[in-house]
From TrEMBL:
One of its GO terms (molecular function) is 5'-3' RNA exonuclease activity. Pfam families: PHP. InterPro entries: PHP_dom (IPR004013), PHP_domain (IPR052018), Pol/His_phosphatase_N (IPR003141), Pol/histidinol_Pase-like (IPR016195). This is PHP domain-containing protein. Residues 5-73 form the Polymerase/histidinol phosphatase N-terminal domain. It comes from Candidatus Stercoripulliclostridium merdipullorum. It comes from the Bacteria.
Amino acid sequence: MKFNYDFHIHSALSPCADNDMTPINIVAAASAVGLEMIAVADHNAIANVKAAIEVGKMLDVTVVPAMELQTAEDIHILCLFPTYEKLEAFYESLEFPAIENRSEIFGQQLIYDLDNEVCGYEPRMLLASATVSEYEVGELAERFDGIAVPAHIDRASNGILAILGSLPEGYTAVELSYRCPPDAGAQFLKDYNVISDSDAHCLADLGKRRFLIDLPERSAEALIEYLRHKR
């Protein structure tokens, strides 16, 4: 079965995202444009994921537990998990520098509840890299039954190819930005599962392009199992 998806959406918890990127607004907008599977993947944080999952259950949108990790090398890695509990355990295993966010410079880092109200603020600056290396993150994600996917590898900013010059061994899937043609680097990426996502930071970015994924069922578990196996 083929499903419309977008596995890289930022909520208002990410300081660079619009403040109206609440869990409710994201899932409602995703449903309105026909997305069936999504992931809220904030920078180095997960505080809005659980609410998004709950809203997804109400609106029949599958929300995959996720986070966009920034490694010690400043590489962005999309980390996907079968359950929120697995994502939470992964997150709690990480270490981040204790740098306080300056919202007047970097932006607010907002946590929302199911009433669409701000219920908290993340004080740690989320744009600071974690201590974990890119070379460790794949194994670490797998320890919690998840998968690590190098994000927007076609981009110079925080892309693994721009920083390292190649794809290290161990990855079975990669992400291209939505502006990149789906067949870009077809020969180079022929052994990888390739997903394309919006990396949305505002509601208008959702549904700009449609991407389909063929899975046996609409679930986080099926997605991760699919992405784990090289072509």
